[in-house]
Write a structure and sequence with these properties.
Strand order of the largest sheet: 6-7-8-3-9-10-12-11
Shape: globular
Helix content: 25-40%
Structural class: alpha/beta
Order of helices and strands: EEEHEEHEHHHEHEHEEHHEEH
Strand content: 15-25%
Number of helices: 10
Number of strands: 12
Bound molecules: adenosine-5'-triphosphate
CATH class of the largest domain: Alpha Beta
Radius of gyration: 20 Å
Largest sheet: 8 strands, mixed
CATH superfamily of the largest domain: P-loop containing nucleotide triphosphate hydrolases
């Protein structure tokens, strides 16, 4: 049994202007000990997937499909069970540490909070655990008495990671954990994440718009476009879907400043979810699209060992001369 299984998961926001289909039928599984990356441009629905996993979406969002965490149906959980699952079985590290920390509470108290709220430790056990966690994320133990504004962005992100580890969850969901950081600090935090998931046998679902960041940490990658998965496969192998290829070309290597300044291969903008093009939603931006791409429905299908892609043209690539 997979640790996490998403079966045809959709997220629809209801707003005054109608329904926003942000996530459309995403199926994905994550095995124990595995690190899976979820990539896609801004607005592709990655964060909506992450928030749906622990039912953290606003009330305006409707989630359909099934989400199984260690075999248990997250969408059917009673409130008390859901609270127990959050932090202890799965926790989230959010984008930009500054949003996740309370500015008027000491770092140590914030890390201890999930342990105390879940009755997993006495106050003295919790403060010992806080020291241990600070060491694990590479911060001196005296930092427990600091306030968030006394820390750099990288140090705050380390605190967020310590909080996520506090209750020893089996799964960590990391949503753009390094996006707000400068390149050197980004590399240090990625190294830390790699080390912690290996040492503690934690599964990771990591979300980023930057495929090179994900490829650095993850075993498998799944690519989203306009709310759908367009490709999933091993992180090491070559991508087959034209969108994945364009995204990979836009971010060729971790921390390459040139690629940030001049993303290649991705002209135009993603579609408005309320006005999705027919056929393959990527066809208006696709450099190799043919007429059928604008009309024919495209589902994920096997295109190689452990790899699926939703593109009519994959497999016809020789004929296209690529
Ligand atoms: N509360 C909301 N109400 C209405 N629409 C929303 C809401 N939250 C997100 N959306 C829309 O859902 C779509 C997917 O957004 P989401 O944040 O999941 O994408 P993302 O890939 O994580 O992007 P980013 O990297 O910018 O966070 C977008 O079109 C977004 O505008």
């Amino acid at each position: 049994m997979s640790l996490l299984e998403l079966d045809e998961v959709s997220v629809t926001y209801r707003i005054a202007a109608g329904d926003v289909p942000a996530v459309r039928g995403v199926s994905l599984s994550l095995e124990a000990g595995e690190a899976v990356g979820l990539a896609g441009e801004s607005g592709s629905g990655k964060s909506s997937v992450a928030m749906a996993l622990l039912r953290l979406l606003p009330r305006s969002a409707r989630v359909d499909g099934r989400i199984l965490l260690d075999g248990e149906d997250v969408l059917a959980m009673k409130w008390g069970r859901l609270r127990a699952v959050r932090w202890s079985e799965a926790s989230i590290v959010f984008q930009g540490a500054q949003h996740g920390l309370n500015p008027v509470q000491r770092i140590g108290d914030q890390i201890a909070e999930p342990l105390l709220v879940h009755n997993l430790a006495t106050p003295s056990e919790a403060s010992m655990r806080v020291r241990e966690l600070l060491e694990q994320v590479g911060l001196p133990t005296w930092r427990a008495r600091s306030y968030p504004h006394e820390l750099s962005g990288g140090q705050r992100q380390r605190v967020m990671i310590a909080m996520a580890l506090a209750c020893s969850p089996r799964l960590i969901i990391a949503d753009e954990p390094t996006t707000a950081l400068d390149l050197m600090v980004q590399a240090q935090v990625l190294t830390l994440i790699r080390k912690l998931i290996a040492e503690h046998d934690i599964s990771l679902l990591m979300i980023s718009h930057d495929l090179s960041v994900l490829a650095d940490v993850c075993d498998r990658l799944a690519i989203m476009y306009a709310g759908r998965l367009v490709e999933a496969g091993p992180a090491s192998a070559d991508f087959r879907h034209p969108y994945s290829q364009a995204l990979a070309a836009a971010f060729p290597t971790v921390g390459d400043p040139a690629s940030r300044l001049a993303p290649r291969g991705l002209a135009g903008d993603p579609p408005d979810p309320q006005q999705l093009p027919g056929g393959c939603a990527f066809h208006p931006r696709c450099p190799v699209a043919i007429d059928d791409c604008s009309t024919a429905p495209v589902d994920l299908r096997d295109v190689g060992p452990g790899r699926t892609a939703a593109c009519l043209l994959v497999g016809r690539s020789l004929a296209r001369g690529n």
